[in-house]
Design a protein that fits this description.
There is one protein chain. By secondary structure, the chain is α/β, with parallel strands linked by helices. The protein has a single domain, classed as Rossmann fold (3-Layer(aba) Sandwich). The chain has a seven-stranded mixed β-sheet with strand order 1-3-4-2-5-6-7, sandwiched between helices. α3 links the parallel β5 and β6. It is globular, with a radius of gyration of 16 Å. 32% of the residues are buried. Guanosine-5'-triphosphate (GTP) binds next to α1.
């Protein structure tokens, strides 16, 4: 699928103020600094669309982007950022939770995971929670430019072994690098195929 237009629509912390439309949407979630905003920029070929930073905790609101005037990409704050105060963490968590539970337009959540790390409890718990709430999700492994090809395979195998303990069928997954623009077509084609079905 080709992206011909990508526009910022609105940022907010209240799911009831998200765009009042019936367009399908796809949300990016995962630990702070995993590369959610960077991936949105890579997918849309616009390095300034979503704000990115080397410091975790950059994205602090629910951000809607309108793609091809037909669907939304949603950039969310990361979870698990230790340096945010307890109160802020609770606030973020509350509106992320509300977003996933209430946003009927959400078609699929992409849970981003840094390929270099061992499976993290916070990610596994979040996927479990999505499953319990019947929210479809896929996994996007990020920053694969940081590993050699054979290391990538080993990491993927280890990750899916851990997932197999909780999931009969593994979720769809994508292997990406925003730096090298790897996996971009696969993610876009996946979205395109869901939009058409
Ligand atoms: P928060 O908004 O803080 O939750 O972070 P985020 O998940 O949106 O991460 P962001 O896209 O801001 O990227 C965090 C850092 O990782 C930045 O320094 C990016 O340049 C870097 N980064 C993102 N994607 C990649 C990638 O594919 N490869 C490499 N090497 N670095 C990446
Ligand atoms: Mg971000």
């Amino acid at each position: 699928m080709k992206i011909s237009s990508a526009k910022f629509v609105i940022s907010n912390s209240d799911v009831s103020k998200c765009p009042n439309s019936s367009l399908p949407e796809y949300a990016f979630i995962g630990r702070s600094n995993v590369g959610k905003s960077s991936l949105i920029n890579t997918l849309t070929d616009n390095k300034n669309l979503a704000k990115t930073s080397g410091k975790p905790g950059k994205t602090q609101l629910i951000n809607h982007f309108l793609i091809n005037n037909a669907w939304h990409l949603v950039d969310l704050p990361g979870y698990g950022y230790a340096r945010v105060s307890k109160k802020d963490k609770k606030t973020f968590q509350k509106y992320i939770t509300q977003y996933f539970l209430k946003r009927r337009q959400l078609v699929c959540a992409f849970v981003l995971v840094d390929i270099r790390h061992e499976p993290q409890k916070i990610d596994l718990d979040f996927m479990q929670w999505l499953g319990e709430n019947q929210i479809p999700f896929s996994i996007i492994f990020t920053k694969v430019d940081k590993l050699k090809p054979q290391q990538i395979d080993t990491k993927l195998q280890a990750y899916f072994e851990v997932l197999a303990a909780n999931w009969e069928a593994p979720p769809p997954y994508f292997v990406t690098s925003s730096l090298q623009k790897l996996g971009k077509e696969e993610v876009l084609n996946y979205i395109g195929s869901i939009n058409q079905s």
